[in-house]
Amino acid sequence: MTDALSKIKNVSYVVNDGSGVLLQAMTTDYSYVVTAKHVIQVDKNNSEQGILSISDISVFSPDDIKIRVLDTFIHPTLDLAILTIEYINSDIPLSTLKCQRNENLVIYGYPNYSGRHRNTQLSRRLWLETYNLNFLDINDNIMTMGVPDVVQLSDMEGFSGCGVFHINNGKPFLVGIDFAFDKPGEYVSRILSVSIENIFTILNLNNLPQINPPYFKNIFELKEDIFKYDNCFSIEDIKKATGVIKGNSDYLQGSCEITPFNILTHHNDILDFIGCSSSDKQNEKIWIAFLEFLYVNNLLERKEIWDCDLIEYLKSNFKLIYINSDKGYKHHLHNILSANVEHLKEKGKLLIIDFGQMPPKPDTLNLYRDKIPNNVANAIDEESITNALYIMKKSISIIHLPKLHEHCIVDKELQFEQLNRITDREKILKIIRDGYLEFLSMEDIVCG
Fold this sequence. Notes:
By secondary structure, the chain is α+β, with helices and mostly antiparallel strands. It has 14 helices and 19 strands. It comes from Photobacterium carnosum.
């Protein structure tokens, strides 16, 4: 069995006479099981009779573990519901990207049609069945999918609430929740599902935590996405540098206690956000940039483990600010120059993660820092003015992180051209280190 199919089976749950999918909320207090609303209705054919009481909703894992249901939340208009359950890990990500016509999808659910299915003398994993589907269309949040095989209607009863998955590059993504047949007859030719982004409506209406992507538990899930550049003459020369940077920290994959989830819930003073909703904070770009920062820090000061002690050290010396805007850093100068740096030591670094227009140099923003009284005094409140004065008093250096990476990697392309990644590894490391040390010198920072 492929890893993708194994993951899908592990999150496919039994919900009453239907099915559901386990998802991880951004909390350790509980998890979610997403299903079709009619699966938990008093009468599945009549929504006006309401939802079953919690004691009448039965949820089982594929390994026959009875799951405690805590609460139910339903979509106001669509056949979609979320159950909060006792905390269980899940590593299935969502995909809200529109599928292409005839794209291959797959469903896994728990049918009712034979003596083997719903037979409690057998493991529920043996109840699971699957069908391949082809995406056809989406209209008003409802996805229509074709069933290429000849399938009787009775064969698919019990699939309601199951997940519709897209497997891309060996990774499964949840794209929808099955809820009905299109023009049902003796045979099924089309299936309808609610597109998965509609669960955000339920979460937002009920002030529930957002869904936790897999890299929130293991930041190394993003390893293949860091230090990617295409604005260069020779990508192979750039890969000499990025390969050395990555190789320098590969040993940490099994000894990293730092996760995005942990940062947001316990150490949020190391990372600030401008223009971000709670769901925006899951954006891969933020955590790719954060992982790049960890790799660079390890290049300058090698650690045996990335743990809470490292986080405390970083919090004393660095603060990162992510700007969620296409307008660039200049549009948000008053926010940057009034950031709370109370926890930073003297000569600490304020690192800006911004993917708009880049400044001329990594430390260009220091020019604005030195003119803080003119730049922000008339634009911010008293608390922010106090923060701005702290930046000046502590001589906090403001560095544009993407520009710094460009300066230390892409701009050094010609120097890497004549070097070999194997025989000249130390030379490559020195070039990269020297570039970063020019702006992130640890000698300027009082280590704790």
